[in-house]
């Protein structure tokens, strides 16, 4: 098999489409690249939202990675099942999810779980629950440094919130969490300049907290786009996630990042309804549909135009349609891999064009047992 067809299976006759294919050797190489960029295991806290699989967690653990970040209680439970040492639930729990978080701590006592708060009301609920359970809960303050999605402003109220955590016997302030997913400049020098400027507010906040007599144990910063920039800082944990599987959107936006595509969708032509029109069995239910077209990069058909999609269908215009017949197999790399993986119960693993097994997308649903 040539390098240009690294993704192609030798025999597709037993594969139902659409299917999610994973390439473990490429994931392994991406882990090595993450470690090379970060400089050390201690500064890495990879996010598992992209893959949601025990096998990928275990691959990272074999490289010495034991700190992880996740977005749901189910993902946190999966990490507990994998005996991860240190897990951050990077989604402030509210209402019933606070109870679930404490049940998670009870179910997996060997794992140190922490989560986020960004306001005094949620903190009060956490304190109340911890007091009733006679526990100490580890918390990070979620800081908004420009994305305007979650977090509190890096000001005096954040210092007061940190102090409230530290001064209560049932809570421990682990540090600061800041996600800067809004920084997506393609030029790495421009991305670095914007990222560094935004991070100055975090450093000022950290200094302000320390001037009040408190120690900021840790700062968790960024996601995949800002990963190479934050990796150059000292005493900072970086939290890349998409880097493990990579996708077409990030490959286009960030050519400076040398990660390999490790997740591919197998699809088939199911109809040729009109001249220059072909239809694939890759609908909204099989690939992330939240962005405009294109939803995927169709390998070998990159110059085609994706013109329509419904629940089970992807309609494409191409002047090459006469070269193909109904039933032909194509491969595609999703533009956004994270929500795409979550649409599949399992991923088929591939090595050298052969099927080697299947990995369950174990945290696909919102709940495993807790």
UniProtKB/TrEMBL annotation:
Keywords annotated in UniProt: Lyase
SMART domains according to UniProt: D-ser_dehydrat
SUPFAM superfamilies, A to Z: PLP-binding barrel (SSF51419)
Taxonomic superkingdom: Bacteria
Molecular-function GO terms, alphabetical: D-serine ammonia-lyase activity
Any one GO BP annotation for this protein: D-serine catabolic process
Domain D-serine dehydratase-like: residue ranges: 262-351
Alphabetical list of Gene3D superfamilies matching this protein: Alanine racemase, D-serine dehydratase-like domain
InterPro entries: Ala_racemase_N, D-amino_acid_metab_enzyme, D-ser_dehydrat-like_dom, D-ser_dehydrat-like_sf, PLP-binding_barrel
Family to which this protein belongs: Belongs to the DSD1 family.
Alphabetical list of PANTHER family matching this protein: D-SERINE DEHYDRATASE, ZGC:162816-RELATED
Protein name: D-TA family PLP-dependent enzyme
